[in-house]
Structures are given as structure tokens and as C-alpha cells.
Amino acid sequence: MKLALVYALLALVATAFNIATQDLVVRIYSGPFPVAVALIVGTGVGLVVKYVLDKRYIFRFRARNAVHDSQTFALYTAMGLATTCIFWGFELGFDYLFETKTMRYAGGVIGLVIGYFAKYYLDKRYVFRTDNA
Question: Under a CB-based contact definition with an 8 Å cutoff, are residues 83 and 115 in contact?
């Protein structure tokens, strides 16, 4: 139960970084496709924050060296592709349906919660396996 609570708290931190980054990008970026650019940049920031937090506090993973850490991050990113589709689907779906920034972010948060739930099991099984350490 403690692990679930810590995971939820860390997911909340990563979600806050993601959504805050998106909001910042939308405010300062004036080029084409601002929502898409914000979504991509926010996802990247959230991914790095979540990786660092998961690696240290959830899975207590220690890479052997920089190459091993890079390989682990690449696998972590690959496992996140499907969950990113869930997240983006909810965020863009809410944006399309409701046409407000608040509801777009609400969809993003819902998608992130669902995605993070699935991602925990993918990471536990494929990324941070004890034989991978």
C-alpha cells in the first residue's frame, strides 16, 4: 500500500511538470500547432521527471554505467509509447469535445492517470527487472 501511495505521489509530481510545461509552451510559443508542440514538449519533460523518480524511489534501480542507464531509459521510453497514446488520446479528445484549455488539461490528467497505472506494470516487468540491474 505504501508503494502505491508513493507511486501515486510521484506520478502527481510528473503530471504537474507535464501540464505546467504545456501551459508555459502555449503561453510563450506563437508558431504553428501550439497545442501539438506543447503536448510534445510537456510529454518529454514529464517522461524525464518520471524516469528519474521511478528509477530512484519506486524501483530502487542502479544502472551499472551511463550506457546501461541510457539503455534502460530507451526501454522505459519504448514502454511509454502505448501509454503516451492513451494520454494524448484523452487530452486531444477532450480538447476536441470541449474546446477549452481547462478541459484539455483535465483530459490530459485523466489520460496520464490511466497511462501511469499501466506503465507501472510494464516497467516492473520489462524495464526495471532485477536481472536487468
Answer: yes
Contacts of residue 3, defined as CB under 8 A and 6 or more positions apart, other chains included, come to 58
- Which set of grid coordinates corresponds to residue 56? 530512484
Q: Which of 83, 89, 122 is nearest to 108 (CA)?
A: 89
> pLDDT tens for residues 80-108?
888 999 999 999 999 999 999 999 999 99
CA neighbours closer than 13 Å in the CB half-sphere of residue 101: 11
pLDDT in tens, 9-33: 999 999 999 999 999 999 999 999 9
- pTM, rounded to two decimals: 0.85
CA distance 81 to 127: 13
Question: What per-residue string of b and e applies to 31-56 under the rule 16 or more CB within 10 Å gives b?
Answer: eeeebeebbebbbebbbebbbebbbe
Q: Which one-letter DSSP state was computed for residue 131?
A: G
Q: Decide: 33 and 24 in contact? Cβ < 8 Å.
A: no
Show me where the domains of the chain are located.
Answer: 2-132
